[in-house]
Write a structure and sequence with these properties.
Length: 158
């Protein structure tokens, strides 16, 4: 009987060690996937930023046909600021929630967290849509103001 308990204890210990190693392997796998996603996002972001910088310079050079150099760069800076405001306004919807969803699926392999997040999103979605409409109206007004300023600059130049 003593042999039986010793063997059972040994088997339980071995089982515990194997479960721990399996947990380590799964953790390493998930960490590797996460690091791979982070590296990919950083690389793509760097490439896109460099491309956007060259695109902005090219657009400014193209605008120099009609505006002075300083004004064309000012127009590009204003457009960049406008795009940044739009991206900042939609950051949660466009970036945060998809990243949370992807990470929770990858790490947890469970959608319980996602269901709770979706429920809270549904509760907030009406208010967020209203805020987004208000922000878009403000951006539209700022764009119209920028266009009027550009018209005044063109009038002063002509």
């Amino acid at each position: 009987m003593k042999d039986f308990y010793n063997r059972l204890l040994t088997d339980i210990q071995e089982y515990g060690k194997l479960q721990y190693k399996l947990l380590q392997v799964k953790g390493i796998e998930q960490l590797s996937r996460l690091i791979g996603v982070i590296i990919t996002v950083v690389m793509i972001t760097a490439i896109v930023v460099i491309g956007l910088i060259f695109l902005a310079i090219a657009l400014a050079a193209w605008l120099e046909q009609w505006l002075p150099m300083w004004a064309s760069y000012l127009v590009i800076a204003g457009a960049t600021l406008l795009i940044a405001m739009i991206v900042y306004g939609g950051r949660i919807l466009w970036f945060v929630r998809p990243i949370e969803k992807h990470l929770s699926e990858m790490i947890l392999n469970d959608t319980t967290l996602l269901k709770r997040q979706k429920q809270s999103i549904d509760n907030q979605s009406t208010m967020q849509r209203e805020l987004l409409r208000r922000d878009m109206k403000n951006i539209q007004q700022e764009w119209e103001l920028l266009q009027r300023i550009l018209q005044l600059i063109r009038g002063m130049i002509s």
